Amino acid sequence: MSNAQHVLLIAPPTMTQTPAFDRAGALARAMQLPLHIVAFDYFQALAVAGLFAPEQISAAREGYLQAHRQWLVQQAERLSMHGVKVTSEVAWVQAPYAEIVHFVSEMPLALIIKGAQQESALKRVFFSALDWQLLRDCPVPVHLVTDDRNPQPHNILVIVDVLRSEEQDLVFNDRIVAAAKKLASVCEARLELAHVYDWTAAYVQDMGFGALPLATGIYEALGTAEREAFSALAERHGVPPACRHFIEGAPIPSICEFATGHHTDVIVMGTVQHNGLSKLPGSTAEQLLHRAPCSVLAIKPGRMLQS
């Protein structure tokens, strides 16, 4: 495989054009990187039937794969018209994540993009088992796309947790913001930096409900410390004051409300493998991912978004 950096788009097994196609094309063009599209096909019924009629089932499988290849070629040609170098392939595999790991090891990847389903009536995002594997285990930044509002993002929101205590986690904050800045730069998008201070959780966890009236000083001290840490992070990355948002409240509804009100196209967050996805302000990345009103980009420790 090529040694050049690529953007990898994981297409759905059904021949369906999702918003992820246009987002992948737009980001590959903005980042000036080639785009590779791969679809993973596997039907258990065909696999079982092949035990009894191998020749007929093999022909049927190859016919479907050829149709899917041709469809992807058409999508690649459409995206190529916008100045993107696009290649595509279809693989018959039962375990897609293992194949993606092979891509990661053989093809230098700047970013993996995949479509995720959003049900607007419920305001929830539904992820497949493969999505969760990518978010939890894949070392490459993963972008899950839910809407087609702006193929090239106009508004990017990066969420940080300034309470990270270990040195490696503090460095991780810098990586998250740097990746978001890089994405905003290549897309010529507005970048907003936010941290949510959940003082109610601090009370309940550390002091219990009975201590609330006595803990005003501690609450104010914690808030001051977090504000200072947040300001220092913003200063290090040159985020202007108008784009810094220190929010007090419950993290998940606060972030979702902010993203909705500011027409956010992408929420950038850090995810680590630590009892699932965690280390987001006051809650878990998993909860935010389920409720995010827009697409999300998950940054992993040790990996930067390339441009």
List keywords for this structure.
307 residues; 12 strands; two-stranded antiparallel ribbon; Rossmann fold
What is the CATH C level class of the largest domain, in words?
Alpha Beta
Write down the CATH topology of the largest domain. Answer: Rossmann fold
Radius of gyration: 21 Å
Class inferred from helices and paired strands: alpha/beta
Sequence of strands across the biggest β-sheet: 3-2-1-4-7-12-11-8-9-10
Poorly predicted sequence stretches spanning 5 or more consecutive residues: 48-52, 278-283
Number of helices: 10
Question: Architecture of the largest domain, CATH level 2?
Answer: 3-Layer(aba) Sandwich
What would the average pLDDT be, to the nearest integer? 82
Order of helices and strands: EHEHHEHEEEHEEHEHHEHEHE
Portion of residues in beta strands equals 15-25%
Q: Domains counted in the coordinates: how many? A: 2
Q: What is the CATH superfamily classification of the largest domain?
A: HUPs
Percent of residues in helices: 40-55%
Measure the end-to-end span. 20 Å
